[in-house]
Amino acid sequence: MLEPNRIMVFTTHVFLFYFLPLFLLVYYNLPNQWRNVWITLASYLFYGWWEPWFASLMLFTTILDFIWGKVISRPGATRMQQKLAVLACVVTNLSFLAFFKYYMFAAETMNEILAAVGAQQFRVLQVVLPIGISFYIFHSLTYILDLYRGDATPAKSFSGFSAFVALFPNLVAGPIIRYKTLADQLQKRDHTVSRFSSGVTIFVVGFAKKILLANPCGQVADAVFNASSPWALDAWIGALAYAFQIYFDFCGYSDMAVGLARMMGFEFLKNFDAPYRSESITEIWRRWHISLSTVLRDYLYFALGGNRKGERRTYFNLVVVMVLGGFWHGAKWNFVLWGAFHGLFLALERWNGKSSFYQSLPRPGRIGITFILMLFSWVLFRADNLTAASDYFRAMFGLSQPGNVSSLLAATIYTPYHLIVLAVCALLVFQPLQAHDWAQSPVTWRRAALVVPLFIFVLLSMFSQASNPFLYFQF
Predict the structure, then answer these.
(1) Is 329 a catalytic residue?
(2) Rounded to an integer, what distance in angstroms lies between the CA atom of residue 197 and that of residue 181?
(3) 443 DSSP 8-state letter
(4) Secondary element (H or E) of residue 205
C-alpha cells in the first residue's frame, strides 16, 4: 500500500520548494554534456524518495535494456540474434511487471478456486507494487521494439538512455514517451526564456486542475462510493464527480509533466484533447490518454493483425487489446470488465463504420450519450470489486433499497462549495480550449498577472488539504 505522505509528488512542499528549485539551479549551471547525467541522478532521487530499492530495480532493468539495445543495433548482428535479444527483453521486463503487479491477483484467484473445490489453500506472499513500474517498463519496451523494427536509432550513451527512462516528469504516471520522440532532444535541446515560461504556465494550470478541481471532486466521489446504499441521485452525482476527478487528476498530472519537461528543454506530446467532447467511444480513445492508446495500437493491435485479417479478426483484436489495456491498469476483475466494455463498443462502432449507433442525433445528444457511457465505465473503474460495482449500478437506477445515508452524504456532496466545483468542471470539460495548446502561445504580462496569483492561491489550497496522491500512481 502506498503511503502518499512519503512519496515525493509534484503537489508537495518538498518537491515545490526543495527538489525542483535545486534541480533547476544545478541543471542550468552545468555544461550541456553533464545535464543528462544530472537528470538521471535527480530522477533516481525523486523515484527512490519513498523506497530506495525501487530505484535499484529500475536501474537493473535499464542496464539490461541498454545492453539488449546494443545487441540489436550491433553492426553485423543477425536477425536471429536480434530476435533473441528482443525476446529476452520482453520476457524479462514483463516478468518483473507480472510479479510485482499481478502475482497477488493470480495467487488470490487460485486460492478462491482451491477453496471452491475444497482443496487446501496456500499462503500468498505480500508484494509491494513499485510506483510507476508500468510506465518505465513500457518506455524501455518501446525503445527495444522500435530498434528491432528500424524505427529508432540506438542510444548513443548510457547517460542519455537512463535519462530517458528515469526522466522524473513522466516517470511515475506518464505520459508514455517513446525514445524516438526524445532521441534528438536528449542530444540537443533549446533552453529559452520563452520555453521555460511556457513550461511554468502549463505546470501551474495542471497544478490548479489537481488541487482546485480533482481533489474536491474526489471528496464527493469517495463519500458516495464508500456509502453502503446511496440514493439514485447521490449515485449519479458520485459517478459524475469521479468522471471529473479522474480527468482533472490525470490531465492535471500530464500538464504538470509537460510543463516540467518544457522547463528542461524537452517537448512532450499532448496526452489529452478534450475527451468528454467526444461523440463516440472510438473518438474517446483518440482523445483520452493518447500516449497509451497509441502504444496499444502500434505495439499490440497491429501485432495481432490489426484490420488486415478480416472483419471478425478486427473485432476480436479490438476487444483483446482493450481487455489487456484494462488489465494493465490493475490486477482486478473490474479493470478487465472495464476494458471489455470499451473493447465491445469499439468493435460495434467499427462494425457501424466507426460511428456510434446514435450518430443521427444532434451533436449535443451524441456527446451526452457518449459521456453517460463513460460514467458507466468509470463506475467499473472506481468500484472496489465487481459486487460493489453491481450494487452501485443498482443504486443509480433505483433498483436497490436506499439506506438512511442521504442526510449524511449531503454534508459533503451538496455543499455550495462542492456544487460550484462540479459546475466549474462541467463547464471546463465541454469547452474546446486545452491548457497544452493555450500554453504554446507567447507568455505576456497579462498572462503572468493571471498565473502568479493562481499559483499562490493553489499553493495555499494545497496546504489546507491532507494529502494529494495522484490516481494513476497506482497503475
Answers:
(1) yes
(2) 22
(3) P
(4) helix 193-208
CA dihedral 421, 268, 335, 216 (to 10 degrees): -20
The per-type count for the chain, helices as H runs and strands as E runs, is 21, 0
Indicate the length of the chain as a whole number: 475
Helices (H), 117-192: 133-149, 158-166, 179-187
CA distances 41 to 34, 48, 441, Å, are 11, 11, 32
Whole-number Å distance between alpha carbons of 176 and 135? 6
Catalytic entry in 139, 289, 329, 418: 329
DSSP assigned state of 127: -
Phi and psi at residue 150, in whole multiples of 5°?
A: 80, 20
DSSP state of 276: G
Q: How confident is the model at residue 50 (pLDDT cuts 50, 70, 90)?
A: confident
Q: Residue 399: its pLDDT value, please?
A: 86
CA dihedral 140, 144, 146, 147 (to 10 degrees): 140
* Structure confidence by residue, pLDDT tens digits, 371-418: 999 999 999 999 999 999 999 999 999 888 776 656 667 778 889 999
Which contacts qualify for 432-437: CB closer than 8 Å, 24 or more apart? 432/274, 432/277, 434/270, 434/272, 434/273, 434/274, 435/202, 435/205, 435/206, 435/209, 435/251, 435/255, 436/202, 436/255, 436/258, 436/270, 436/272, 437/270
Q: Provide CB contacts within 8 A for 339, sequence distance 6+.
A: 322, 323, 324, 325, 326, 327, 329
Q: Which helix (H) or strand (E) holds 101?
A: helix 79-116
Highest mean pLDDT among 40-54, 364-378, 449-463: 364-378
Reported pTM: 0.91
Please give the Cα distance from 87 to 240 (Å, whole number): 43
* Per-residue model confidence as pLDDT tens digits over 187-227: 888 888 888 988 999 999 999 999 999 999 999 999 999 98
Q: Any idea what the Cα angle at residue 100 is, between residues 20 and 5, rounded to 5°?
A: 35
Domain boundaries, the chain: 4-189, 194-279+356-474
H-assigned helices in 264-332? 281-287, 290-296, 311-329
Return the sign of the alpha-carbon dihedral for residues 346, 141, 135, 22: negative
* Between 408 and 74, the higher pLDDT residue: 74
Average model confidence (pLDDT) for the chain? 89
Over residues 115-167, the pLDDT tens digits come to: 888 888 888 888 888 888 888 998 999 999 999 998 888 998 899 999 999 99
> What nine digits make up the cell of 227?
456509502
Phi, psi of 281 (to 5 degrees): -65, -35
